[in-house]
């Protein structure tokens, strides 16, 4: 009907071609010409209008073997086209037998496989015609009805997928796809080899034509292929999972799942029956199968089409999520590793994913926790900003303190990358970026010491990176943006708390001795000369070994670091030495630092790559890469124009610890102090000028106009500016006259000065008393009389109108001028003593001062026991008295005089006021670290064991641990071990000591605290020896204290023996000789007294029994230590208020809010050696064993003379009746707990 409509009534058209194409003697050219003519005519015939009877001759001849097997490509190409036309014209019936059809189709695909190439190839148009005919006419479906059709289909699919790889025209790909789709649709049963051929294409690159063809075919035949694909995967899994669990079998399963993932990306409709199968795999017992399925589904869910997959298969999604609790860590790990895509692509399921990640941050396995942290490092800024909560970022920050190194590294790296990505927006003051990304920065800078190495790396790479040096190495004139570099530091500090800011300052490398250990290492390398040493070879080598040992302790692997540092010294490259010297030089600017650092590391990498890691860390710690002299101009401008608090903090810190950075900038500082309206800028400039003037005489201020301005500041009412101005005057050439003039003027005005001016004048006098003693002494009688009588000795009663009348501390900003002046007056007294330390009149000057300071300690900050001074004034005064005594103790002759009041000074660390305790420790530690104080001062940190505040005790532990590890073995003996007997003596004199059982239990905690930090298998014999020696001497003051000492001796011996037994330490007799300190101990009068003491047991029976029971129940080493707990996630809630002391001890009350202070109270005095050892009693040591019965005649009865002596000693007990008064005060404050908690 259709043909008639198109052709009208025209008669069927017959084939005009009537020549023979088969026969002998037919030349190839002639045959080719005939076939071409035949093809042309057949191509023009219409299927509906052709007389098929006219085709019978050519139809038969075309399948002749002489044609199908002809050697000429052209003959076969045209013959194939003619056959395709014959099939088209005869459709839907084929005019051939099954055998002939099989030969024809094999002929077709053989021609296409061998002949169809690029458009430039011979007979390309004929091959194109053949392919088009098969595609459009669909005659290829006849294959499905042939015998052994499966074999032919396999060949067709294999040939076509091979053919399509030839990068042919897009239209040819479409024709091939149509043919393959038709075959799949018409076949009764799809051969497995065909499916394997199709599936194999998905494992290729997804840009390949074969991959594209497979995708087209599968998407077009998805309904029919679903069942086959499911069966295909089932066969693979069943075949390999039930065999031996060799890796090769699982590799096949893994490949099958890779194929599933590819199908999910391109042909998801094929997987309708496969996804439920994967769901079942999640439940199997075989770990490898579960692992592979979890990974595959995770990657599928995390891709762009994952949301649709979750929606279509919700049960599979839920079962997959349950793998978060899988018993195998590797499965949980694979689950977590897919989370990046989930966070990015599953918009509607982010809460679920977020909860999953939050839980896995606390997973028992470190690899899982590390993987969670790593996922967030891979996210972009926008994703984190909009889809990752601030709580989650804080949780990741919490992993920065994880006990496992791998987790810490990933957590810190993640936060570092996120911050680096967000910094441009933070710099632009984007509120969302600031709110989201600035909350976790403190974590970088407050990592505990064991974790600091990773934090330093992250800070260097992401938080404070050096400007890019890619072009620095190739160009001499490189523009490094110093302003942006400095502003990044200031911006970052703006979002840190006080702890974070302090950590940045420490990390900057500004603070430290000069030359630094790193500079000493470089000097030692130069002197070592690669091992070729001309003189003092042993000395040079020992110096190099010592400095390497010191530096390597700071590395994660000290042994590897030491080997690498030795290896660098052996290279002996002058160029490397020169570059390293440039990097270490404080005068190197930012551009020079970047250039020298890059070249240095490049040379190391090329010459000794194995030491590159160590030298990179070395360079990072040794150089001023966070702030250096290039920062100064920008910092000054930020103080001047933006009133930047942190710029002022940095400049103040530089002034205190590294004023050499100011050398190129003195003119800018001089200009800064001229801006008198900007008080903060003037203060910073004055402090900087004072510091640089004192550090380098050539840079002292001598300009007349500037000195006149400085003199005005000296006489001004701003105490800090006046203090720095006084230091500048002292450093000038005309300091004698200028200082004398200032002292004269102050002496005249002091008595009538207003409070603020009085504070400023006293601050100036404190400087002159120390730095210009000659000028001060001209008016010392007048000045000291006023300061002592009119200022220090004047009572300071509490304000009756003040609501918080029981508060015992006042913050720096709230200190009243009068109290500030009194504190400074104590500094004047202290500095005057220090200025005269080397003179013959030193003790004459210092004695009244020492007496006054000791009185303040004895009377809790007042000059008399019955004074009614304000508690806030008293706490400040006794703190300053204690600090002053510390600074005076650096002078040997003063230390000897102070020794009689050492116990009163030491128990300041147990003051009732938290701030006094903490400030005292903070002033003590630097002096101890620099070894300016006698070794006995190392006892003070051990008195913090009962402190109610954890941070006081933790700081003490940190100091003792660090100090004891970073000194030589000999120094450790002097600083921490020999002083053990002094600790026993101190506890015997402690105001809270008594022979009651409960009290001795408390005293035992001091001993255990000391032993926890110091005792080891190497020194336990020495400590035990010292404890026994305490019963072979008597106390230097009284018989009462001697009995206390003997009780402590027995208690300590038992504690040491129990510890040694629990830890399997060998407690042998100490082979050496020890001199006991003669300043506190005396020899016994005769052997009889010694024998009596050794036989007497001074511990109560209850205590002896307690010790015996404790020794039986004490756990062995390794189990006695408290298990370290994982750090909890940070919480939004505010930290609870500090606890009150729960017992009546002289450790005091809770701490109150404390502001950061940058004013260090340092002493310029150098340490002088002192010896306090006495001759040892050579009697044989006899351990004392507790007994339930005392020996006859040793019941503790005393003569009347001894009893009177004991009563007298009770009155002479040190420390302002500390054992009673402190307890009463604590009890009183505990009752007011609520009030203090609100104010803390």
Structure description:
This is Armadillo-type protein. Residues 1109-1240 are annotated as: Disordered. By secondary structure, this protein is an all-alpha fold. 62% of the residues lie in helices and 0% in strands. The chain is built from 62 helices and 2 strands. The protein has a two-stranded antiparallel ribbon with strand order 1-2. Helix 6 (98-115) crosses helix 7 and helix 15 (287-301) runs parallel beside helix 18 (329-337). The N and C termini lie far apart (102 Å). Residues 1-9, 470-475 and 1117-1240 have low confidence and may be disordered.
Summary?
Keywords: Cell cycle, Cell division, Coiled coil, Mitosis, Nucleus. This protein is an all-alpha fold and 1240 residues long. The protein contains 62 helices and 2 strands.
Strand order of the largest sheet: 1-2
Helix content: 55-70%
Largest sheet: 2 strands, antiparallel
Dominant shape: elongated
Structural class: mainly alpha
Radius of gyration, taken over Cα atoms and rounded to an integer in Å: 45 Å
Task: Report, as a whole number of angstroms, the end-to-end distance.
Answer: 102 Å
InterPro entries: ARM-like, ARM-type_fold, Pds5
Biased composition (Basic and acidic residues): 1120-1135, 1181-1193, 1203-1212
Pfam families: PDS5
Region (Disordered): 1109-1240
Output the keywords:
two-stranded antiparallel ribbon; elongated; mainly alpha; ARM-like; 62 helices; coiled coil; mitosis; 62% helix; 1240 residues; disordered N terminus; disordered C terminus; cell division
List the helices and strands and how they pair.
Elements: H1 2-7, H2 28-44, H3 56-62, H4 65-68, H5 73-90, H6 98-115, H7 124-137, H8 149-163, H9 170-186, H10 192-201, H11 209-220, H12 222-241, H13 247-266, H14 274-281, H15 287-301, H16 306-312, H17 314-321, H18 329-337, H19 339-345, H20 350-360, H21 366-377, H22 381-387, H23 390-398, H24 405-427, H25 431-437, H26 442-445, H27 452-463, H28 482-493, H29 498-507, H30 517-528, H31 537-552, H32 558-571, H33 574-584, H34 590-607, H35 612-622, H36 632-641, H37 645-657, H38 666-672, H39 679-695, H40 704-714, H41 719-731, H42 735-749, H43 755-771, H44 773-777, H45 780-792, H46 817-835, H47 842-858, H48 871-888, H49 892-898, H50 902-906, H51 914-929, H52 950-965, H53 969-977, H54 980-989, H55 997-1014, H56 1020-1029, E1 1033-1035, H57 1039-1062, E2 1081-1083, H58 1087-1095, H59 1101-1113, H60 1200-1211, H61 1218-1231, H62 1233-1239
Antiparallel strand pairs: 1-2
Helix pairs in contact: 2-5, 5-6, 5-7, 6-7, 6-8, 7-9, 8-10, 9-11, 12-13, 13-15, 14-15, 14-17, 15-18, 16-17, 18-21, 21-24, 23-24, 24-25, 24-27, 30-31, 30-33, 31-32, 33-34, 34-35, 36-37, 37-39, 38-39, 39-41, 40-41, 41-42, 41-43, 43-46, 45-46, 46-47, 46-48, 47-48, 47-49, 48-51, 51-52, 54-57, ...
InterPro entries: ARM-like, ARM-type_fold, Pds5
Coiled coil: 28-55
Main location: nucleus
């Amino acid at each position: 009907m259709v043909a008639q409509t198109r052709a009208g009534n025209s008669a069927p058209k017959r084939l005009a071609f009537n020549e023979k194409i088969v026969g002998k003697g037919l030349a190839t050219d002639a045959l080719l010409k005939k076939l071409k003519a035949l093809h042309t005519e057949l191509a023009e015939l219409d299927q509906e209008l052709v007389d098929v009877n006219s085709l019978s001759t050519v139809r038969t001849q075309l399948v002749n073997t002489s044609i199908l097997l002809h050697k000429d490509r052209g003959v076969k190409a045209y013959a194939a086209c003619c056959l395709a036309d014959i099939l088209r014209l005869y459709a839907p019936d084929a005019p051939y037998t099954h055998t002939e059809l099989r030969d024809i189709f094999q002929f077709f695909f053989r021609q296409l496989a061998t002949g169809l190439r690029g458009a430039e190839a011979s007979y390309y148009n004929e091959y194109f015609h053949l392919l088009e005919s098969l595609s459009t006419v669909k005659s290829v479906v006849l294959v499905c009805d042939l015998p052994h059709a499966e074999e032919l289909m396999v060949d067709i699919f294999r040939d076509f997928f091979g053919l399509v790889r030839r990068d042919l025209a897009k239209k040819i790909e479409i024709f091939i796809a149509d043919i393959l789709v038709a075959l799949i649709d018409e076949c009764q049963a799809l051969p497995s080899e065909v499916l394997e051929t199709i599936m194999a294409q998905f494992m290729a690159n997804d840009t390949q034509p074969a991959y594209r063809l497979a995708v087209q075919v599968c998407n077009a035949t998805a309904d029919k292929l679903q069942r086959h694909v499911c069966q295909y995967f089932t066969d693979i899994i069943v075949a390999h999972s039930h065999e031996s669990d060799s890796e090769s079998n699982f590799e096949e399963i893994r490949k099958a799942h890779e194929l599933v993932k590819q199908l999910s990306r391109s042909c998801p409709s094929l997987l309708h029956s496969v996804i439920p199968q994967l769901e079942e795999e999640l439940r199997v017992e075989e770990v490898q199968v579960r692992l592979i399925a979890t990974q595959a589904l995770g990657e599928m869910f995390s891709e762009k089409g994952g949301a649709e997959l979750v929606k279509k298969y919700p049960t599979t999604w839920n079962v997959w999520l349950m793998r978060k609790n899988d018993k195998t860590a590797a499965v949980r790990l694979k689950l977590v590793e897919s989370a990046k895509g989930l966070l990015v692509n599953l918009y509607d399921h982010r809460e679920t994913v977020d909860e999953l990640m939050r839980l896995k941050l606390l997973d028992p396995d470190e690899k899982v926790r590390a993987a969670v942290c790593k996922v967030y490092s891979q996210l972009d800024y926008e994703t984190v900003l909009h889809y990752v909560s601030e709580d989650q970022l804080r949780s990741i920050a919490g992993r920065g303190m994880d006990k496992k190194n791998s987790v810490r590294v990933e957590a810190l790296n993640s936060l570092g990358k996120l911050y680096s990505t967000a910094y441009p927006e933070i710099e632009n003051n984007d509120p969302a970026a600031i709110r989201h990304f600035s909350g976790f920065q403190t974590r970088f800078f407050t990592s505990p010491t064991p974790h600091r190495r990773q934090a330093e790396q992250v800070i260097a790479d992401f938080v404070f990176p050096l400007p890019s040096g890619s072009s620095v190495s190739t160009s001499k004139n490189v523009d490094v943006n110093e302003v942006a570099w400095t502003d990044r530091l200031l911006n970052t500090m703006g979002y840190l708390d006080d702890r974070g800011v302090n950590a940045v300052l420490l990390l900057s490398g500004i603070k430290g001795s000069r030359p630094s250990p790193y500079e000493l290492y470089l000097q030692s390398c130069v002197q070592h000369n690669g091992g070729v040493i001309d003189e003092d070879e042993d000395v040079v080598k020992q110096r190099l070994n010592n400095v390497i040992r010191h530096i390597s302790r700071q590395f994660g692997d000290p042994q590897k670091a030491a080997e690498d540092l030795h290896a660098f010294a052996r290279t002996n490259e002058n160029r490397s030495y020169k570059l390293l010297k440039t990097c270490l030089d404080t005068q190197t600017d930012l551009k020079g630092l970047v250039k020298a650092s890059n070249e240095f590391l490049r040379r190391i990498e090329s010459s000794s790559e194995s030491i590159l890691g160590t030298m990179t860390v070395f360079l990072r710690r040794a150089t001023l890469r966070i702030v250096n002299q290039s920062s100064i101009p920008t910092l000054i401008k930020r103080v001047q124009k933006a009133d930047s608090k942190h710029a002022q903090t940095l400049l103040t810190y530089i002034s205190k610890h590294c004023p050499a950075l100011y050398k190129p900038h003195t003119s800018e500082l001089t200009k800064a102090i001229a801006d008198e309206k900007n008080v903060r800028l003037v203060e910073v400039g004055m402090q900087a000028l004072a510091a640089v003037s004192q550090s380098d005489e050539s840079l002292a201020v001598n300009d007349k106009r500037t000195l006149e301005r400085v003199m005005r500041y000296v006489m001004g009412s701003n105490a800090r500016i006046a203090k720095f101005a006084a230091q500048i005057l002292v450093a000038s050439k005309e300091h004698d006259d200028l200082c004398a003039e200032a002292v004269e003027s102050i002496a005249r005005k002091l008595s009538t000065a207003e409070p603020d001016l009085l504070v400023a004048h006293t601050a100036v006098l404190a400087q002159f008393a120390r730095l210009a003693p000659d000028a001060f002494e001209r008016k010392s009688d007048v000045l000291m009389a006023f300061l002592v009588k009119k200022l220090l000795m004047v009572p300071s009663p509490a304000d009756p109108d003040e609501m918080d009348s029981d508060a015992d501390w006042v913050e720096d900003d709230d200190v009243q001028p009068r109290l500030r002046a009194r504190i400074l007056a104590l500094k004047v007294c202290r500095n005057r003593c220090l200025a005269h330390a080397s003179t013959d009149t030193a003790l004459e000057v210092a004695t009244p001062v020492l007496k006054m300071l000791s009185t303040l300690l004895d009377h809790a900050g007042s000059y008399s026991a019955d004074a009614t001074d304000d508690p806030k004034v008293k706490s400040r005064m006794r703190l300053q008295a204690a600090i002053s005594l510390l600074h005076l103790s650096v002078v040997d002759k003063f230390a000897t005089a102070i020794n009689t009041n050492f116990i009163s000074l030491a128990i300041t660390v147990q003051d009732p006021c938290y701030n006094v305790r903490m400030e005292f420790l903070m002033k003590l530690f630097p002096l101890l670290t620099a070894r300016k104080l006698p070794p006995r001062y190392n006892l003070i940190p051990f008195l913090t064991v009962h402190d109610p505040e954890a941070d006081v005790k933790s700081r003490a532990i940190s100091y003792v641990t660090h100090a004891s590890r970073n000194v030589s073995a000999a120094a450790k003996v002097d600083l921490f071990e020999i002083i053990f007997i002094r600790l026993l003596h101190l506890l015997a004199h402690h105001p809270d000591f008594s022979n009651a059982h409960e009290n001795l239990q408390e005293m035992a905690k001091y001993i255990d605290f000391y032993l926890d930090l110091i005792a080891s298998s190497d020194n336990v014999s020495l400590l035990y020896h010292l404890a026994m020696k305490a019963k072979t001497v008597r106390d230097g003051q009284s018989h009462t204290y001697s009995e206390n000492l003997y009780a402590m001796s027995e208690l300590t011996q038992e504690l040491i023996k129990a510890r040694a037994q629990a830890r399997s330490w060998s407690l042998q007799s100490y082979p050496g000789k020890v001199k006991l300190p003669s300043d506190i101990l005396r020899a016994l009068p005769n052997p009889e007294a010694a024998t009596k003491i050794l036989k007497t047991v001074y511990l109560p029976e209850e205590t002896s029994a307690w010790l015996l029971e404790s020794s039986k129940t004490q756990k062995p080493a390794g189990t006695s230590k408290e298990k370290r707990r994982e750090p909890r996630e940070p919480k939004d809630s505010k930290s609870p208020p500090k606890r009150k002391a729960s017992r009546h001890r002289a450790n005091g009350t809770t701490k109150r809010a404390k502001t950061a202070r940058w004013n260090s109270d340092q002493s310029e005095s150098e340490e002088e050696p002192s010896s306090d050892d006495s001759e040892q009693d050579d009697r044989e040591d006899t351990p004392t064993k507790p007994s339930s019965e005392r020996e006859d005649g040793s019941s503790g009865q005393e003569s009347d003379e001894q009893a009177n002596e004991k009563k007298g000693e009770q009155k002479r007990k040190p420390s302002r009746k500390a054992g009673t008064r402190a307890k009463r005060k604590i009890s009183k404050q505990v009752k007011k707990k609520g009030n203090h908690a609100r104010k803390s």
